[in-house]
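User: Just a sanity check before I run the rest of the batch. Below are the structure tokens for the first item. I only need the designed sequence back.
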């Protein structure tokens, strides 16, 4: 009999996180401080606790997970790995499809894996409050939950478009005692500046990051900033996902030929595929597994963006990060996969993409919701719109297998449920969704503006980012 859900015991929650840094095909280019025009982290050391900064720079392959963090992980970890038997049957595919489900966490997504770790280190180092931005609301919810577990205060700047689309996310955060403001807000200088130019601004992650960082910097000794993606420490906290999946696949004696995940900033997908990448580089992988990141055509940072230094935020408070970018002035179309609307990506994803260690595919939101509908009706779980991009890729692959007869093993990450996304489903079922495609011309315009702003940056691009843009 086929096992539907493959489970591990609490004692099998990983004891260490995996850090990919020592195993990358070439070292990560440094951040650049736009004030000094030299490698440097700018304000970063002022907004994170020391333990987090240590992990961000760490060259250690394995990092101990504190017992206090594992204790909280026990509330939902190890998360289940499902065999998508219903979906396989509906597709009549010879492929085997597995998905790791992170929607069982208290906030409904993978984001809690790093939120708990970040809250823990902040409390340990004596900080009283943490700030952050949130797009879809998943990260803000995860941080609010984690902060409350450690009696830490939390302030969340939520992108206006999502704040209006998802009122229950705000209430969720408030239930855990967090303060949630629609961004741009009147709480910060950056927010007030944007509102003066455009009182109806629907916001962006870049703007919300500026607000959360400014808030933390204004009260440096008591308040820190936390981030839900992009930074290396966040990605490595997510590797509990992939490490558990490896143990679960051993139970059914299987191994993936291909792994799909969606990318906003790259944390959930990295959490799943990094441990399999380690298998590959350490010669332990029984197969040549392919890693495929999926993104939105409305926010195609890797498929259409350029691999260059750019700010992580709109107000240019953060240092320059080496990453695929659409430009820090990017204002996304109001697509429903709020978590995929970020203009940049984790630098490790950029290194791996430029070295052809992973591929990227972009989908529009209509085809993504079509895939989500089939998944709902065969697997019984309503996915968040973000992981529905990975579902779309897995379904397409399984259909190809039906045509070729290939009995391949497909693994994807279902990183969150969509219970707070019913407004998006309503618009989809009523034919009101649009298939946005971000124009290449707009990327070129942003890149021109960036080059005019920092004419000296081209030298740094040439010196540190050795590979040509994809
Ligand atoms: C459910 C969900 N999936 C995916 C993402 C994308 O982020 P990341 O690429 O860091 O996993 C988000 C971000 O908010 C999210 O909420």
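Assistant: Here's the designed sequence for the first item:
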């Amino acid at each position: 009999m086929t096992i539907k859900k493959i489970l591990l015991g609490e004692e099998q929650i990983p004891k260490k996180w995996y850090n990919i840094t020592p195993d990358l095909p070439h070292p990560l280019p440094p951040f650049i401080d736009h004030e000094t025009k030299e490698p440097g982290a700018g304000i970063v050391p002022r907004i994170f606790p020391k333990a987090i900064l240590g992990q961000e720079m760490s060259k250690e392959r394995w990092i101990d997970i504190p017992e206090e963090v594992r204790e909280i992980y026990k509330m939902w970890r190890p998360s289940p790995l499902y065999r998508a038997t219903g979906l396989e049957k509906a597709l009549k595919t010879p492929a085997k499809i597995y998905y790791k489900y992170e929607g069982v966490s208290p906030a409904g997504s993978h984001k809690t894996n790093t939120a708990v770790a970040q809250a823990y280190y902040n409390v340990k180092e004596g900080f009283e409050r943490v700030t952050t931005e949130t797009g879809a609301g998943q990260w803000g919810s995860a941080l609010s939950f984690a902060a409350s577990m450690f009696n830490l205060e939390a302030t969340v700047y939520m992108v206006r478009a999502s704040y209006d689309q998802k009122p229950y996310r705000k209430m969720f955060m408030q239930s855990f005692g967090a303060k949630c403001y629609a961004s741009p807000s009147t709480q910060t200088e950056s927010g007030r500046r944007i509102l003066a130019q455009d009182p109806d601004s629907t916001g962006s992650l870049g703007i919300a990051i500026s607000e959360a960082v400014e808030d933390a910097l204004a009260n440096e000794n008591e308040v820190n900033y936390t981030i839900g993606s992009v930074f290396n420490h966040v990605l490595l906290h997510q590797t509990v996902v992939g490490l558990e999946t490896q143990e679960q696949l051993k139970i059914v004696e299987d191994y993936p030929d291909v792994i799909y995940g969606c990318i906003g900033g790259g944390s959930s997908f990295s959490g799943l595929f990094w441990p399999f990448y380690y298998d590959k580089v350490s010669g332990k992988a029984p197969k040549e597994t392919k890693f495929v990141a999926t993104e939105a055509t409305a926010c195609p940072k890797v498929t259409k963006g350029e691999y260059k230094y750019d700010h992580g935020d709109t107000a240019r408070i953060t240092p320059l990060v080496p990453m695929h970018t659409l430009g820090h002035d990017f204002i996304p179309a109001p697509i429903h996969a709020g978590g995929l609307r970020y203009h940049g990506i984790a630098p490790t994803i950029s290194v791996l993409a430029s070295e052809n260690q992973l591929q990227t595919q972009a989908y529009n939101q209509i085809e993504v919701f079509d895939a989500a509908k089939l998944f709902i009706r065969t697997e019984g779980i309503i996915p968040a719109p973000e992981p529905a991009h990975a579902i779309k890729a897995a379904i397409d692959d399984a259909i190809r297998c039906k045509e070729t007869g290939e009995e391949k093993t497909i693994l994807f990450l279902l990183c969150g449920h969509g219970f707070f996304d019913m407004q998006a489903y309503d618009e989809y079922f009523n034919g009101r969704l649009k298939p946005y495609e971000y124009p290449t011309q707009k990327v070129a315009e942003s890149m021109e503006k960036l080059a005019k702003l920092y004419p000296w940056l081209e030298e740094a691009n040439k010196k540190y980012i050795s590979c040509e843009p994809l």
